[in-house]
Amino acid sequence: MDNKGIITIESPYTVKETIDRLQAFLQQKAVTIYARIDQQAEANNRGYTLLPLGYLLFGNPKAGGAIMAANALAALDLPLKVIAWQDEQQKVWVAYNDPSYIQERYALPDNVVVPLNLTPIITQVLQ
Questions:
Q1: Of 126, 121, 118, the residue nearest 7 (C-alpha)
Q2: What is the rounded CA–CA span in Å between residue 19 and residue 44?
Q3: 20 CA to centre of own chain
Q4: Residue 1 belongs to some domain of the structure
Q5: Within 13 Å of residue 49, how many CA atoms lie on the same side as its CB?
């Protein structure tokens, strides 16, 4: 599997706790939460067994607007998204887009890509 452009970090929390912590942190920073999806529950409701998997879609319209003004195609990767899932070994992982990949993909200038760097947020949330 090619994971180019994706950053993956292990979480010490359950999938639910990981997404809860991230959502709470973002809400404290007045970041807009657009959607939270329990992918496991959705799959289970359709008769498909899936290990825990959660999805959070969020953003800052001002920062995202500047990114999309630089290249409208960047809207394909906005708002920002994070997934957390549990693997077969009971480990929980968090994944999100690498900001340098998005910058390169859309030829974005340095001055608009700072909000794409989720690593400091994820690191703080997982402490």
A1: 118
A2: 19
A3: 13
A4: no
A5: 1
Tell me the pLDDT tens digit for each residue of 63-72.
999 999 999 9
- The verdict on residue 102 lying in a domain is yes
User: What is the model's pTM?
Assistant: 0.92
Residue numbers of the domain that contains 63: 6-122
In a domain, residue 127? The reply is: no
- Strands (E) in the chain, as ranges, are 6-11, 32-38, 53-59, 80-86, 92-97
Report pLDDT for 34: 97
Number of structural domains in the chain: 1
Q: Rounded to whole angstroms, how far apart are CA atoms 56 and 96?
A: 10
Residue 1: pLDDT above 70?
A: no
What is the arithmetic mean of pLDDT over 34-58? 95
Domain-located, residue 86: yes
Q: What is the CATH number of the domain that holds 52?
A: 3.30.310.70
